[in-house]
Design brief:
The complex is a heterotrimer of chains A (404), B (493) and C (322). Chain B is α+β, with helices and mostly antiparallel strands and 493 residues long. Helix content of chain B is 51%, strand content 12%. Chain C is an alpha/beta fold and 322 residues long. The chains are: A alpha/beta (404), B alpha+beta (493), C alpha/beta (322). Chain A: Keywords: DNA damage, DNA repair, Metal-binding, Nucleus, Transcription, Transcription regulation, Zinc, Zinc-finger.
Amino acid sequence: MAKGIKEPADDDDYIDIDDTGPGDLKGADGGYAWEEEYKRSWDVIQEDASGSIQSIVLGINDQKRHRRVRDTEAIQRGIIRHVVLIIDQSENMNLRDLMPTRIQATLTMVTAFIGEYFDQNPISQLSVIATKDGLAEKLTDLSGNPMDHLGALKDKANKDLAGEPSLQNALELAMHTLKRAPTHGSREVVCVMGSLTTCDPGDIAQTLEALKASQVRVSMVHLAAEVHVFKRICRETGGVFYVAQNEDNMKDLLFENVPPPPIVSARATADMIQMGFPIKAGGVPTPCVCHHELGFVGYICPRCKSKVCSLPTDCDVCGLPLVSAPHLARSYHHLFPEENFKEVGGDSVDSACFGCGAVWAEPPNDTEPGGGRGKYRCPRCKHDYCLECDIFIHETLHNCPGCV
Amino acid sequence: MATQMGSEEEFKSTIAEYLESLPTQFCRRVFSNPAACLAIFRLLSTVGKQLVMSMLYLDSAIKLQDVYQWAKVDHQPLVRSKVHQLRKLQILTEEKGTVSLNPIFREQLRNALTGGGDFSSFGIPYTGAVSNRGVSKKWLASYANDRWEAILHFMVGHSADAEPPSESVRGILRMSKLMENSEEGMKITNSGFQFLLQDSSSQVWTVLLQYLRLAEMQDMDVVEVLNFMFQLVSLQLGRPYSTEALTRNQRKMLAELCSFGLLYQDSVGAPQFYPTHLITSLSSGSASHSGPSSTDSATVVGAGGGTGRSAIPTGSKATGELAKPSDQGFIILETNCRMYAYTNSALQIAILNLFVHLVNRFPNFITGALTRDSVRRALSRGITADQIITFLTTHAHPQMQGRTPVLPITVTDQIRLWEQERNRLRPTPAYFYKDFGQKQEYERMFKYAQDIGVILWASNEKRQLVVTRQGHAKIAELVKSQRAAAAAAAAAK
Amino acid sequence: MSEPLESDPSLLVVILDVNGWAWTQSPLTIDNALQQMIIFINAYLALKPENKLVVLASNKRECKCLYPADRNQAPIERDIRIYEQFRVVDATVLSGVQAMLSDAAATMIEGEEDEEGQTLMSRALSKALCHIHRVEAESSAAVKVWSRILVISAADDSPREYIALMNTIFAAQRMGVLIDICKVSGKSDSVFLQQAAEITGGNYLKVDTTRGGGESMLQTLMFTCLADHYTREVLVSPTSETIDFRATCFCHKRIVDIGFVCSVCLSIFCELTPVCSTCQTKFSFRVARADSAAPHQAVNGSLKQSPKPAAATAAMSTLTLS
C-alpha cells in the first residue's frame, strides 16, 4: 500500500502526523520514498535507560492530542451543505487490498459516513452517484433523509462492478445535481476512487473549469495511489486529496468530510430558508407519505398536513424541509467551538480532574521532563482536565463543564 | 446434586429451587430477616428484581393482568414466567386475580433498604479487644485461599505432603459425591472434576447448599442455618464480628465454615470471627470485595494522562491486592490449539491436566496443547465442552480478555465438535415390528405411524418398522383393533 | 450498538439539585426527597453487585461530586441495621449535601445575591458525561457498562444554558446514555429537561406533589427509573406526553409552524427580514427553498462578519419550545 500522501489545501485539516511533507515524494535523503531502505517500525521504539517505554507512550499521547488541535476561531462554516458522494464501481474495486474487498470496505465506510454526516449536519443534503463502465449513475437525488441513501446503497447491492470509472461523467452529473442547490449552502463533492485511470468522453480540464466556476469543492479519498489529475482537481477546487493506507485510515480520511468546511468563497450568500417545524402525532396508526406504511408515531407537515415518519427530512408532498428545534441546536457547536486546552504543569486549583474527578498522579520525579504532565487547562475557566476528558470534551461533548 | 451444574446461574437457580421447596412457615421465618431478604432478592433475575421493586412501595394489591401489561408485547411470556417464579418463591402472593408482595418480605426488604428493623440483622461488629495478631484483608485473603486450595488439592490428590482436611470437610465432600471412598483412600468423582472447573463462587455455593442438606439430615433448624448463611454473605470483609448472639447451631456452623476457609476465627470459641472474601464475594459479585463502590476510590491519572488505572467505583484496586495472580487470568490459547499457562500452582496444573496435553513445564510457565485425546479424556469424565470453554474463558490472560470472542473461534468449535463426536450414537427406546402378514397391513401401519410421527426407521422391502416407545402404545392399539376386526370378520364368515 | 445483556452491569449517575431556594418553593421538603432518593440509591445498589454509582450535587454556584468521595464519611458503628455498603454511600451523600447546603447558606448572607435560584444543570450533566466516559473507557472490552443519568431537578430552566444543555443532550445520545428526569418542583415543566429525556430515550417524570408528597416520588422512581437498559427492553416505559418540538421565533417569541431560518447562524424568524438580527447577515431578497428548481444568482452576497458568539448565544437561548 502506498504511503499516506496528502495535499493539504486547507491548513487546518492536517491528519497524517507521520507525513514527511506536503506534495513531496522525496524521502529524507533526497531519494524517492520507495528507494529508501525498508523501515521496521518496531526498531524505532527505544527503551529508555530503565527499560521502560514510558516516553514512547507519552509521545503517542502527544500525537493523539495533536490530531485534534483544531482551529477554534468562531469562523463561518457552511452549516447547510449539499454533498454529492461519488463511489467508484469499476472493476478495480474488486481488489482485495482492503478487507474483504475494496468495494465492500467502501460501502461499509460510506454507510457509516452517511449516518455521521446527517448526525452532525442535520439540515444538510446528500446525493449518491456511482460510476462504472465509463458511465455515471445517480443512485439518489439530493435529499435530507439518510434512509433514502442507506436504502439505495443496500438495495442496489452495488456488488456488480464493471469496466472503468468515468470521473468526468460523474463530476458533470454531480455538478448538474448541485446546480439546483441554493447558493446559501455549500456545494461539495466527495469521491471514493479505487481506479488509477478514468475513461472520459471529453477534456476533464474543462470540467475542472466548470467546477471552479460553479464553486464546487471536490475532495477525494483514493484507495490505491496518487493520480495527478485527481489531485489537481481537488487542489484547484479547494478540496483535499488523500490516499488511504488501510481501512482505519480510510475511515479517518472519509470522516474528515463530516464537519462542515469553513466558507472561503466570497460568493456564498446568506438566505432565509423556509422550514417547517412539525408536531409529533400519535394515537391512531396512519400511513406515512414516505414509506406508505402504517405507524403510530409521525410528524405532521405544517403546510400540507401529510405525515412523515422521521425528522429531519423533506416533506414528500410539498417539499418543505422539516426539522425540529433540537436539530438546529445540534449544529450550534460547529459555530461556537470550545477553545483548545493548554497542557500545564505544576500545581493547580483543582485537586482532581474537573471533569471526571480523577486524582492527579504525583509527578514521578521532579527532575524528569515528564513530571506533572497530563493536566490540560481551559483558558477560559482555568479549570484543569485529564487527557481523556480533554479529548472527550472537544470531540463529543463540545462543552467545557467549567465554562457553562 | 452436584452432577448437573455448569454455570453460576444454575447454582443460583438451585438455591432458589431449594427455597421454593421450603414450606410456607419456613419461608415466613426466612423472610423475617432483612439480610436474608436482601440476599434472596439478589438471587432473582433482573426482570424479577424490577417487578419486586415496582411493587415494593405499592400498598394495595394489583391485578395480575395489570402486571402482565407492564411488559412489552413481545416479552409477555418472559414476564409471566418471572411472575410465576416469584410466586413459587412465595415472594408474591396471589388472591382472586390480584397479586401483592408477601407482607413479611415487603416489610423486611424495605427495612434492608432503609436500615430499619432488627439491629443485628447484618451482623454485630466485635468491639472488644482484638488480639495483637493483625488480621488484615490481605492476610485474610491468603488465609482463605490457602484453606480453599488445600481442599481442592486434596481433591485432585496432591495432598501427599499436606495434611488432609478435617473430617467434616471430608464428610461434605463425600456426601456431595464430589469424592468417594475407595481402597486407597478418597478418590475424586466425575462430578468432582466438574466442580474443579467452576469458578470459586460457584464452588462455595455448592458447599453451602450441601451444608444445608447436611443440616436437614442432622435435624438442625434449616431456617436458622439459612438465615445465618444469608447474614454471613452480607458481612463486610476485614471486620471482626461478634459471636455473642449466635445460637448453638450457628456456632457449630461457624466452626465448620472456618475449616473451609470461608470464615476465620483466632481460636475455636473465640468471641469474634472474620468473614473472608470467599463468602463476602457471593453477594458482592465476581471478584471485588466491596461491590460497586469502594471508598478508597481515589482515581489516579497516570503520568501520561489516560494511562491511569481506574478507580471510580470499581473497587479494582482492592481486588488487585486480594486476588492472587492466578486469579487474574493466565492462559493463552492459540488458534492451533496450543496452550500456554503462566502458573506454578500445582492445583491449576492439575486442573489443566484434565483436558490439556501438557508438554513442557518451566518455573512459572507450562505449555501444552488441546488434543482430541486429551479433550475426549475429559469428556469421558463427564466434563462438558461448555465447562472447558468457560474455564478457559474465565482464566484467559488479560491480553486475550480484550478480544471478542475471547477464545479463538476455531478452538471452541473444535472442542464442541469433539464433544459431538461422542454423541454420534443416540439411544432411543423403541419397538421393532416385523413379519407383517399382508402388504396392506404393513402399509396401513406405516401410514398411521407416519401420521403421528413416531417412526424411527422403516423398510418397505422387508416390511419392518421401528417406532418410539411413545408410539408403541398407539400402534399396539391399532394392531389389536385390526386383529379384532379381522377376527370378527373371519368369525362372521 | 450491541444489545444489552441481562448480566451487563450499569452505571448510574444521580444528579441532585440542591438549590435551597428552589426547594423552598416545593411542597416536598428537601429532607423528604433526600430520604426517598437514598432508598432509591440503595435499591439500585441492591440490584446488582457490579452496579456502579456516582452522585453529583449541583446548585447555582457549584457542582460537586459527592460519591465516590475522597474520604470515607461513615464512622464505624456498632449498631448495624443496614448493609455496610449502603451505609457508606448514604452517609457520604448525606453529609455532602449538608455541607453544600450550609456553604450556600453562608455565602448567601455575605453575597446578598438575587434569590431566584437556577441550577447549573448543564455543568452537572457535562460532568456526569465525563464520569461516564471515564468509566466506559476503563472498563474491559468484554463487559459493556450501560450508563444512565437520573436528574432530580427542583429549579427552573435557565435560558442561558440552552446551547450547553443541548450539546450535552446530543453527546449523551451519541454515547447511548439515557437521561431520566424527575422534576420535583418548580413553576412549570422543564422544557429543556423534557427534551433531554425525549431525545436520549429516558423518562420524564413530574412528581405529583399534590397528593401529599409522601412516598409517591419513591414509588415513581422505583417503577420507572430503576430499570436498567436490559429491563427497559422488556418492560414498557410510561408513554411520554406529546412533546412539542416547534420552535419559537427570535423576533417576536411566537411559536411558529413554518419559519424562516438564517442560513448562517440558524436563527429562526417568523417573517422575512432583510438582515439577520443575530449575526447581522444581509439576506438576498428571496426566500430559498430546498426544492427550488432553477439555479439562481446571488443578488448581494458579501458576508464579512462572522457570527458573534455572545449575541448569538443570547438570542438563541430564546429558542425554546412551547
